[in-house]
Amino acid sequence: MVLPQFQALKAQNKSGFAVLADPDKISPADMQHLGRLCNNASVDFLFMGGSLLMAHQMELCIQRFKTESDIPVVLFPGSPAQVTPYADALLYLSLISGRNPDLLIGQHVASAPQVKASGLEVISTGYILVDGGAATTVSYISNTQPIPADKPEIALCTAWAGELQGKHVIYLDAGSGARRPVSEQMISRVAENIEIPLIVGGGICTPEKVFANCAAGANIVVVGNAIERDPMLIRDMAQAAHAGYSSSTVTE
């Protein structure tokens, strides 16, 4: 089970590292190599998904990865079409920072039969999009405005709303292609005041930033684009996450 692993990281003030693989950007043939890299770096989770998913090869990508690795595969879906029983768990995303009813509940109603039939571990996720300084795919596809990067109080109140609604985790995301990641100030403000695990992603390009995010309170840091450009970053980033146990001492 994946959620208990998230919860253990929160309870122990520790941080894990997740590699995000987009099936539109990686071929099934590359997934075995990625599995070996993740094993060698002691990566905690593989997140799988994308905003568009045009290649229709996610299931094969997951199967290839699992031939090399026992690391849990967690679906990070951009649509109900991205549900497959070959994964281990599903982040059931509700875009609580936006006001698009389709992404608050509409797509969940449409996908519920498929999700129930999949047998996946379902992790109810309060998804909060944060302004990363550039228009991102997720903001375009979702037709929503992100929370301003300099408004940690809005992020906190949104996270509280998700927690009070019974979400299992909160996910702060600057989006793929963000010019700047979520600030340590915002991460810290949210992490210190919620009792559920906090996932952070988007625009994270260096091991130093991974460490800073973990020190600010992120329980899972997710990196995708930077690793697509340089897969050898995986080891250093994973080490940074595991070294950066959440101390809530880093602020901007």
State the name of the first-level CATH class.
Answer: Alpha Beta
- CATH architecture assignment name: Alpha-Beta Barrel
Q: Helicity level, as a percent range? A: 40-55%
Number of strands: 8
Give the helices and strands as they follow along the chain.
HEHEHEEHEHHEHEHEHH
CATH superfamily heading = FMN-linked oxidoreductases
Structural class: alpha/beta
If you consult CATH, what is the topology? TIM Barrel
The radius of gyration computed from the alpha-carbon positions, rounded to a whole number of angstroms, is: 16 Å
Q: Ends: how far apart?
A: 35 Å
Number of helices: 10
Task: Pick out the low-confidence regions.
Answer: 246-252
Strand order of the largest sheet: 1-2-3-4-5-6-7-8
Shape verdict? globular
- Biggest sheet descriptor: 8 strands, parallel, barrel
β-strand percent reads 15-25%
